[in-house]
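sorry for the late reply, my laptop died twice this morning and i had to redo everyting from scratch. anyway the thing you sent over, i finally got around to it. pasting the sequence first so we're on the same page, its 113 residues, then the predicted structure underneath. double check i copied it right bc i was rushing
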Amino acid sequence: MMAGLIVLKPGVDWTATGGLFDWTLEFLISRLSDRQTVGHLQEIVDNNLGSLWLDDLPAAAQREVVRLWRDGLIEAGEGHLPETEHKADVIRHLQELVDATYAAESAGPSGPG
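ok and here's the structure:
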C-alpha cells in the first residue's frame, strides 16, 4: 500500500497510508466549492498520485481546504471511518493533520513581511 503525503508548506507536512490519504482528499472533494480544485483532487485520487501540495491550489481553495479540515475532518472520521481497533489511532492521525494546519499558519509566509 502506497503512502500519501500532504505538504501544507515546506517543512510542514503529513503522511498517511494510501487509503487514509484518499479518504482525506475525498472528504474535501465532496465539500469544496471550487470545481477546478475538486477536479485536481479527484485526479490525485483516481491516479494514485499520492501527494498533495497545498501551494498548488489557488489561494481561496487553500483557505477553504484548511477551514474544512479544521471544522469537519475529525467529526467525519468519527462518523464515517470503519469501526476497528485502529480507529482511535486513525482519528489521532487525522488530528495531526488539523494541528499541522495551525503549525503551517504560525510558520507564516516565507520571506520578509
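The helical segments are 18-29, 35-46, 59-80, 87-107.
thats about all i looked at so far, will dig more tmrw
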